[in-house]
Design goal:
This protein has helices spanning 2-5, 14-23, 38-43, 55-62, 79-90, 102-108, and strands at 10-12, 30-34, 50-51, 70-74, 96-99, 113-115, 118-120. By secondary structure, the chain is of the alpha/beta class. The chain has one domain (2-136): 3-Layer(aba) Sandwich (Oxidized Rhodanese, domain 1), CATH 3.40.250.10. It has a 5-stranded parallel sheet. The protein has a two-stranded antiparallel sheet with strand order 6-7. The longest helix is centred in the middle third of the chain and has 12 residues, at 79-90. The protein is globular and about 40 Å long.
Length: 154
């Protein structure tokens, strides 16, 4: 549905992004933009993501970056990030990608999300409608409850 709505945007799979992370752990050739609102980002985000909830913030974040540097955007399900990806392409950035399924798919597949440096297991559900796309134990509307992995009993 989102790919059809934004055919001009290149969409990459979670597997592709994971392989990019593994090939370049320091991610110097990749800019990862989290397009969600600050309260969503505060619950969790992908490691190394920069919060960019608006077009202006994205342009400030990318200022001085080469137009051909890889930029991956994500939000909850991919709609907001696809919109911003299209905007960046129109501004001349050439290697812009939307993460297909965004953070909801990423975490539903068991991939890591973080709050600062701490790995957590929860994601902000955006709202009650879209939040249904997250497995129930992964939903957390605020950063107050830990969501940190529990130590396994010895």
């Amino acid at each position: 549905m989102i790919c059809a709505r934004f055919p001009e945007v290149a969409h990459i799979s979670t597997d592709t992004l994971q392989s990019w992370f593994e090939r370049a752990p320091k991610r110097q050739d990749l800019i990862l933009l989290d397009v969600r609102e600050p309260e969503e980002f505060a619950v969790s985000h992908l490691r190394g993501a920069r919060p960019t909830p608006s077009k202006d913030e994205a342009l400030r974040t990318l200022q001085g970056s080469p137009a051909n540097r890889r930029i991956v955007l994500y939000c909850s399900v991919g709609y907001r990030s696809s919109e911003l990806a299209g905007f960046l392409m129109r501004k001349g950035y050439t290697k812009v990608y939307n993460l297909e399924g965004s953070i909801f798919r990423w975490v539903n597949e068991g991939r890591p999300v973080f709050r600062g440096k701490e790995r957590v297991r929860v994601v902000h559900p955006y709202d009650t409608y879209w939040g249904r796309l997250l497995r129930k134990p992964l939903r957390r509307a605020g950063p107050d409850a830990s969501g940190a992995p529990r130590a396994t009993p010895q």
